[in-house]
């Protein structure tokens, strides 16, 4: 059966194939397909014994087949064979002492043993060399392989040129000469690099999405391309924003362009299906990722193969840092003393050595979050493929190898924020019969951003970003773009953020009378700024300046070599030495920290749009936000913010709610889909059954909808049946009696489950009901969840020493540790808003829980006018008694 399957696959293979088989029977079958001159029987001395080798050679001779000799090589040096055995143990799920390698002496150095077989069976090695000489693998590296949009490259370029020139006329009536000059430059580069088809294919994908009303937008460095903008792939005007095409694509760059396309996360699969159907399943594949062993994963897997239980191995892993330092083995040994104190020192060292030996080796493959490649012929011509667990065809090469062999990646990325914006705009336009136009200098949006009230806004909601917006006194889309660049780890660590804010305050105060305000204040915030400094100082083109910027950032050359190169170029164009030295200092300092403006500007469009919608249409914005679960915070934090803005959030209703959050009479109605325990089939039965007539009573509901005890109890306790019952407690009592449940009703808790409910003797108190709702829905529509906690110090006299005390639910937490600092940055959520706290590690006595109520005490400080609580202590609040 295996031979027949192999024969079938080989029959479909292209020409130029030769086959080796260590099974003479398979070799005979292959010879019938490929010809006996293309098939060899393979003998491998470090796998096969002498008797098997003799038998294989005898059978090959009788069948008229040639034979050759090979050596199984698993590692370079004999010292690494143990590492190979560890990796095999992990792959097979066996203990180390149960694992044997298929080959003995499997190092490259040991392959000299092949000479013994050659002496016993002359001619085998010569045949091996003959086959090796026949191999002629040409990967055609350096040439892009992309499907042809038109019949010839010339026709594709003509099509691209025609489309962009037509769009230019409509978009740049007032600035046509400048735009036309830039378009000609970009088209010339695209033609020289043979990438016309690439742009046309990406345009076809985005055109398909828009034709199906699927929200899409381009982002990343591609926003610096006028061609991309004119093809409607990106939505940022590169001329208006001062973006450089050379940062995205130029003749000197060795890599291919990378267009990132954001797609509504709900419809991304539809776009991917279109790509497979349009270009053929054999020509399309997702890109794989190669996940390698890091310290934690290496220690966990090594511990298991040397006999530790899965629990002990996980305990070891969780106590280690993600990435190893120079003393990785010592770190593992030290933690093992805690996890398994009785383990012998030799065993601890054995595990530690095994773990550090496999670090950096591939652990498993995954699927790139959005990378897809399309080729001009079957994908197997360029790369081996495999099927992922989800049935998706993926490349075995990762993105770096894919690029080297000439396949150009397109990123099709699901974006929840895009769905929020599009759905909110749709609701607004349907409700008010207006066309939503995002105004880049809207006053309400400016006020929102200036105060840092940007929770739920795309890329503007993190604690660091909200603080930065307030410190910058940001007020428009350009400021949001600046903040997106400054908040990155590089500028923050390098001190650029503080220098920028200081210079902004100083120069703003000086320029108020003139009415002029700078944007970058002579600081190279963006990579494009660095490129311009290099170009203007040395006289090189912007394309060459980008290459030099990359060399400085990557550090492939020493600082001294880079400085000599920079100063030599400056001297050749007659630049004054002092000015050149000052320019070099700026370039050297900021090249590593600066962020591409094209990225920031494309993020900024969505970020500002979400802030605009929150400021001007909060009802529609939060309905869309809750439907799409966007952002870094839990749902309850978004609900709390919506309520702070005056938006009423209604309980779910079996007669009024849809599956998801909807807008109802100026409020947000909670959907049935968020109710814990409610199954999908029951939800669908509710929606279908009420189409004819609404539910009138609990009995009516039970007669028409088949639901289990947990589902009905959840619907009652979260308020979804308030419209058809008189009292939740009585309804539960009647239902439980009907189901024969005689357990006792205890105090409801935040971790309350319907199974705990039984016959009550009185109605629920209001706070009891609110806590039940919170447990079933995951948020509290009617009160802030801080009400569920009690402040032990309530009513006590306050301190007069300037100490501040804040109560709230833990909504976000980040740990920052360096040689000098070990801090936790906390965000507390209460009825008044969000509060930022800084807590030293030594003040933390127990693990913090998200959603738990805490009281934080400390001193309030201000940094650039923005308050922050420097905490001295933190206390978990007890739950209120109800």
Characterization of the model:
The structure is a single chain. With 882 residues, this protein is α/β, with parallel strands linked by helices. The protein contains 35 helices and 18 strands. The strands form 4 sheets. A 7-stranded mixed beta sheet has the order 4-5-10-7-6-9-8. A 5-stranded mixed beta barrel has the order 14-15-16-18-17. Helix 24 crosses helix 25. The longest helix has 20 residues, at 597-616. Residues 510-519 and 742-760 have low confidence and may be disordered.
How would you summarize the topology of this molecule?
Layout: H1 2-11, E1 19-21, H2 24-34, E2 39-43, H3 50-62, E3 66-69, H4 81-92, H5 114-120, H6 124-134, H7 153-171, H8 176-193, H9 196-211, E4 216-219, H10 226-230, H11 245-248, E5 259-264, H12 268-279, E6 284-292, H13 295-305, H14 310-318, H15 328-339, H16 345-358, E7 362-374, E8 385-387, E9 393-398, H17 399-404, E10 409-415, H18 416-432, H19 443-450, H20 463-472, H21 477-486, H22 489-493, H23 496-511, H24 527-538, H25 542-554, H26 559-572, H27 577-590, H28 597-616, H29 618-628, H30 635-644, E11 649-650, E12 662-664, E13 667-669, H31 680-689, H32 698-704, H33 709-717, H34 728-739, H35 766-777, E14 803-817, E15 822-830, E16 833-840, E17 853-863, E18 866-876
Parallel strand pairs: 1-2, 2-3, 5-10, 6-9, 11-13, 16-18
Antiparallel strand pairs: 4-5, 6-7, 7-10, 8-9, 12-13, 14-15, 14-17, 15-16, 17-18
Helix pairs in contact: 1-2, 7-8, 7-9, 13-14, 13-16, 15-16, 18-28, 18-29, 19-28, 20-21, 21-28, 24-25, 24-27, 26-27, 28-29, 29-30, 33-34
């Amino acid at each position: 059966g295996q031979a027949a399957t192999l024969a079938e696959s080989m029959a479909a293979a292209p020409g130029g194939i030769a086959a080796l088989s260590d099974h003479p029977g398979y070799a005979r079958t292959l010879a019938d397909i490929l010809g006996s001159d293309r098939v060899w029987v393979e003998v491998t001395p470090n796998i096969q014994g002498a008797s098997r080798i003799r038998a294989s050679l005898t059978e090959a001779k009788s069948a008229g087949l040639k034979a050759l000799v090979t050596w199984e090589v698993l590692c370079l040096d004999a010292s690494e064979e143990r590492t190979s055995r560890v990796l095999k143990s992990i792959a097979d799920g066996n203990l180390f002492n149960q694992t044997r390698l298929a080959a003995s002496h499997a190092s490259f150095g040991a392959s000299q043993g092949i000479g013994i077989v050659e002496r016993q069976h002359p001619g085998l090695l010569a045949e091996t060399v003959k086959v090796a000489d026949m191999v002629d693998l040409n990967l055609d590296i350096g040439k892009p392989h992309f499907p042809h949009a038109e019949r010839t490259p010339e026709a594709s370029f003509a099509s691209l040129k025609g489309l962009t020139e037509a769009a230019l006329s409509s978009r740049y009536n007032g600035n046509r000469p400048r735009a036309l000059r830039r378009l000609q430059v970009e088209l010339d580069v695209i033609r020289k690099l043979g990438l016309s088809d690439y742009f046309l294919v990406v345009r076809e994908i985005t055109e398909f999405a828009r034709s199906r009303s699927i929200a899409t937008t381009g982002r990343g460095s591609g926003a610096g391309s006028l061609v991309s903008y004119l093809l409607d792939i990106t939505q940022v005007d590169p001329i208006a924003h001062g973006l450089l095409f050379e940062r995205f694509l130029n003749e000197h760059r060795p890599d291919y362009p990378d267009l990132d396309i954001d797609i509504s996360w709900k419809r991304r699969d539809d776009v991917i299906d279109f790509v497979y159907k349009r270009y053929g399943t054999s020509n399309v594949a997702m890109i794989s990722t190669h996940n390698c062993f890091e310290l934690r994963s290496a220690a966990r897997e090594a511990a298991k193969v040397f006999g530790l239980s899965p629990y002990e191995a996980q305990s070891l892993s969780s106590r280690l840092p993600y990435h190893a330092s120079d003393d990785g083995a010592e770190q593992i040994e030290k933690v093992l003393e805690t996890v398994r104190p009785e383990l012998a020192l030799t065993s601890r060292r054995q595990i530690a050595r095994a773990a550090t030996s496999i670090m950096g080796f591939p652990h498993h493959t995954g699927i790139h979050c959005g990378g897809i490649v399309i080729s001009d012929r079957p994908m197997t011509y360029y790369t081996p493929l495999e099927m992922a667990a989800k049935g998706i065809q993926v490349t075995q090469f990762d993105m770096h190898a894919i690029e080297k062999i000439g396949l150009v990646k397109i990123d099709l990325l699901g974006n929840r924020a895009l769905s929020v914006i599009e759905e909110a705009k749709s609701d607004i336009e349907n409700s008010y019969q207006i066309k939503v136009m995002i105004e880049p200098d809207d006053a309400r949006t400016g006020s929102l951003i200036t105060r840092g009230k940007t929770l739920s806004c795309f890329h503007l909601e993190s604690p660091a970003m909200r603080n930065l917006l307030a410190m910058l006194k940001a007020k428009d889309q350009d400021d949001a773009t600046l903040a997106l660049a400054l908040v990155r780890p590089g500028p923050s660590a390098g001190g650029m953020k503080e220098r920028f804010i200081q210079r902004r305050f100083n120069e703003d105060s000086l320029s108020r009378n003139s009415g002029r305000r700078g944007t970058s204040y002579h600081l190279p915030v963006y990579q494009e700024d660095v490129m311009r400094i290099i170009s203007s100082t040395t006289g090189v083109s912007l394309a060459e300046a980008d290459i030099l910027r990359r060399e400085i950032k990557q550090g492939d050359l020493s600082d001294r070599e880079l400085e000599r190169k920079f100063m030599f170029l400056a001297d050749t164009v007659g630049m004054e030495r002092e000015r050149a030295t000052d320019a070099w200092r700026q370039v050297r300092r900021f090249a590593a920290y600066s962020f591409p403006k094209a990225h920031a500007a494309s993020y900024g469009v969505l970020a500002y749009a979400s802030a605009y919608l929150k400021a001007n249409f909060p009802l529609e914005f939060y309905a869309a936000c809750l439907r799409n679960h966007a952002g870094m915070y839990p749902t309850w934090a978004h609900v709390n913010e919506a309520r702070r803005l005056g938006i009423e959030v209604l309980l779910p209703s079996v007669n009024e709610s849809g599956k998801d959050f909807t807008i109802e009479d100026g409020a947000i109605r909670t959907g049935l889909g968020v109710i814990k325990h409610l199954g999908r089939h029951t939800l669908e039965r509710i929606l279908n059954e009420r189409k004819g007539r609404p539910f009138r009573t609990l009995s009516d509901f039970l007669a028409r909808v088949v639901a289990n005890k947990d589902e009905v109890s959840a619907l009652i306790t979260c308020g979804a049946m308030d419209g058809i019952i008189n009292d939740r407690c009585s309804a539960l009592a009647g239902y439980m009696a009907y189901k024969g449940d005689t357990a006792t009703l205890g105090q409801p808790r935040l971790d309350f489950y319907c199974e705990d409910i039984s016959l009550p003797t009185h109605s629920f108190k209001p706070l009891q009901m609110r806590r039940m709702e919170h447990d079933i829905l995951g948020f509290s529509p009617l009160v802030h969840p801080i009400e569920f906690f009690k402040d032990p110090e309530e009513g006590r006299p306050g301190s007069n020493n300037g100490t501040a005390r804040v109560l709230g639910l833990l909504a976000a937490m980040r740990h920052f540790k360096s040689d000098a600092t070990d801090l936790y940055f906390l965000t507390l959520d209460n009825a008044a808003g969000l509060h930022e706290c800084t807590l030293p590690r030594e003040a933390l006595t127990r693990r913090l829980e998200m959603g738990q109520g805490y009281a934080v005490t400390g001193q309030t400080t201000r940094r650039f006018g923005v308050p922050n609580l420097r905490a001295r202590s933190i206390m978990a609040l007890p739950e209120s008694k109800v």
